[in-house]
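This entry is retained here.
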Amino acid sequence: MSLLSLGLWSGCGPGAEDVASPDPSSDAEPPAWVEDSIAPVPPPLDGLEVAPPLVLHEREEDRPTPPRVPAISFQPGFHQALRWSHSVGSLTTFRMRIPIGRAGDRLRVTFRSGDSGLTLQKATVAHAGPSGALASAPVPITFSGSSGFSVGARVRVTSDPIDFPVGFRDELYVSFEVKGALSVSAINAFPGSFARSGAHASTPSAIGGASWQRAIGVATIDVEGPTGRVFLALGDSITEGYIDTYNDMRNAWPTLVQAQLGVPVINAGVSGQGFWGALDTLDQEVLALSGVTDCLILLGTNDLSAVTDEQLQARMTRLLDRLQPFCQPWVSTLLPKEKSNHGNYEVVKASRLVFNAWVREQKRAHVIDLEAVTRQPNNIHLFIDGLEVDGIHPSAEGHRVMAAEATRVLRDNGL
C-alpha cells in the first residue's frame, strides 16, 4: 500500500508578504528582489519528469517487484530550508537548540554552507539543558572519520552515523565551530540558541556570547529508527512560523501537527517565497532529503496578482509533477488576505478565490481547506477575529486552528 503525503503549505515573509515571483518556466530574468534574497542554486530542469510508456498485456512474471521498505532506516526528524547566507570572519561557535520529531538510536547531522566557502573545525551534539548548558556529555560529530570539513558554496555535508538515542520531541544542542559562510533562515524562530567567538563546541556549561535565534548551518537531522511516515511542509513565512519579530518554530502549525499526530512534520517553509523560489531551490531544500513520505503544500499567496490565474495553476501543477515521484502531496487552500503590500488588492482578492476553487476541484492531491476554518463566516477575505496579526500572517491562535484542521483531515484519511 503506497504511503500518503501531505500537501505543501505556503505563506508570506516579513516585509515581503506579496512579493511577485517570476515564472521559472519562462525566459524572463527574475526581478532584483529574487536575486537579492534567494541563494544562487541551480534552477529546476526545463523538462518535466514523465511516466514510463504504458505496456499492454504485461505478464505477471514480467512486472517489477516493488522495493521492500526497510524496517529500520534513517529518516528526517528535523529540517529547515536555509535560503540565505551569513558569514563569520573569525572562528565562531554556534550552539543551536533543535527539537527532534522522531525517536531512534542513531543520528546523522547535515550542515549546509552559504554563498561562499565554509570550514567547520569541530561539532558536537548533546541533550539540551537550560540557557545554553548541555544536559548530557557532548558527543563528537565526525565526517568520514574526520572532526571537520572545508567545502565551497551551497554544499550539503552529512556526518557519519552517531550513536545517540533520542526520543520523540527531545531537544538537542548542536554546537559547531566554524569560519566562513553558512546557510541561514530569514526569521528568528529558535530561542535558546547562542553564538560566541572562539572554540566552545565541547564546553558542557553555557557558552555565553550573544543570543542567536535564526536557524543556521544545520539543515537536517536524520534519525535511525522504525521506518514510518514523515511529512514535509513546504510554504512561505506562514509555514516557517512568522508571527512577529521574535518567534518560536514550536508554535508553527507544522510542529503543532507533529505534536498532535506523533509523527515527524519537518519544515521547508521560506519567508517570502512563491512558486518560483520553491521550484528554483527544490533540489537542495526538498529533494535532497531521503525518507520523506508525504508533502504538505501551502503556497501561492506571494504569487497573487503577479501572474494570471492560469499561470498560477500551472505553477502548482509543475510543483506537483516534480514532487509526486518523491512524496504524496496534500494541498491547502490559501488563507484570507486582508490587504496587499504589493499589487492591486482587488486583483489579489479575485485571484485567490479562483485559485482556491481550483485547488478544491483538482484531483492530483488531497485537500486541506485551511481557508474554511480561518475565514469569517460573512466575509471570505477576512480572518476570524484573533486568528491574524497583520491581515496576512496567522496569530499563535491561528496556527493552532490550522494545525487542528490539518490533523483532523489527516486522521480522517487513515493516519
